[in-house]
Task: structure prediction
Amino acid sequence: MGRVWGIGELRGHLIEAGLAGTIATTREQSLRRYRLFAARDPRVLLGLDPERDWSFGDVLGLMGQKCGVSADPTHTSGLDVIDPDRTIAALDAFAGRLAAAAGRRAPVLLGTGHPHRLLDFYAALADALSSAGCPVLTSAYGHRVDMATRFGVRTRVLDYVRGVALMREPGVRGAPSEGGVHTHSPLPVRAVLEAAARSAGPLPELVVGDHGWVCGAGQLGIEAIGLADSDDPAPFVGQAEGRLSAVVPLDDAVRSAHYRPLVHYVLNRARLSR
Result:
């Protein structure tokens, strides 16, 4: 999987690549989404049904604790800041859950709502977990899901690329950049789990991904770990309420190549490097 990245070197990379430190996510966007979460807007719940009421102040405080964003409500403009040390600590926890799954050869499901940016990251994890003896599940291949978009309800098709689930526009094949769609919806993971249950096949013991993939799985009682940006409070609330095991705060929309050192670091920490 490549050379081992030390903590200091990884920290420098996180800042230089804009994965942590000052990131491209705006403060205005984050605060808007925290308010929407407090209002239980389904667009930002990502399939999570919080157990308790989360006020705007509660969400802001949690995101300050988990990500390192400013917890000052009067700070209303500029770019968000993610603490790279929190990112590294979360990567360690993420690696620990991968190691535990690999140790018991647990069935795993990987899925992303960011196929253009994060597919390679998850595909490397899928390959390593498969090599360790974990069944990498691909239930509901080709299943059609009607999903809300900014253009109205659109039909999307569930596909798997290198062991990672993603949604495509109907009729499009090939690279994920040719039809892979960005989505926050929990509907895809629900479709996968329903198909697995109907076929009496194995259900995942661990779901790895982002957005609705992990929040939707965690809500249904399946262990889930993933990545989340500073404007996506739902995974962090899910973690705070015990439904997600590890959430890594980082910018989830930088160039795909910038996530490769994170793969090397995580797989080395999980003792899954080859």
Summary: The first strand starts at residue 21 and ends at 26. The longest helix spans residues 84-103. The CA atoms of residues 47 and 144 lie 18 Å apart.
